[in-house]
Amino acid sequence: MFTIAQIKEAHSKVKSGADFPNYIKELVGLGVIGYETFVFDGHGVFEGSEQHKIHTESKYDDLVVSDFVNAEQFKSDLKAHQQGKTDYMTFCNDCAKSGIEKWVISMQKLTCTYFDKNGNELLQEIIPQ
């Protein structure tokens, strides 16, 4: 069973979106099967086998997530982040401004899905291996 300390250690290595695939590989190695990250404060819910679930604490002061979704701006910001042009906090701020409430990772499907405040799926990407 993985711990919050292990999750924090893995996340500490992520400097930009370019580091994301290695982060996912490390989480899989720990036994994480999926997780959700909430944009408003950065907390996450990580799931493992046998109903093992842990909640991480807030990572930063609360952000205001826009009620208005700007999908095109989000896609542009996401691309920049994945290319290593922005850090994690910048990406979270960009998500909030574009109306992204959370993202959900599935290790089995190797997908990252972004949702708005109404639970609408805005984008699903395949995680590169």
Give the tags.
129 residues, alpha+beta, YdfO-like fold, 6-stranded antiparallel beta sheet, 6 strands, 24% strand, globular, YdfO-like_sf, DUF1398
Protein described:
The protein has 129 residues and is α+β, with helices and mostly antiparallel strands. The protein has one domain (4-126): YdfO-like (YdfO-like fold, 2-Layer Sandwich). The chain is built from four helices and six strands, in the order ααβββααβββ. It has helices at 4-12, 20-30, 71-82, 88-97, and strands at residues 32-38, 44-48, 53-55, 102-106, 111-115, 121-126. The chain has a six-stranded antiparallel β-sheet with strand order 3-2-1-4-5-6. The model has no long low-confidence stretch (mean pLDDT 94).
Q: What's the helix and strand layout?
A:
Elements: H1 4-12, H2 20-30, E1 32-38, E2 44-48, E3 53-55, H3 71-82, H4 88-97, E4 102-106, E5 111-115, E6 121-126
Antiparallel strand pairs: 1-2, 1-4, 2-3, 4-5, 5-6
InterPro entries: DUF1398, YdfO-like_sf
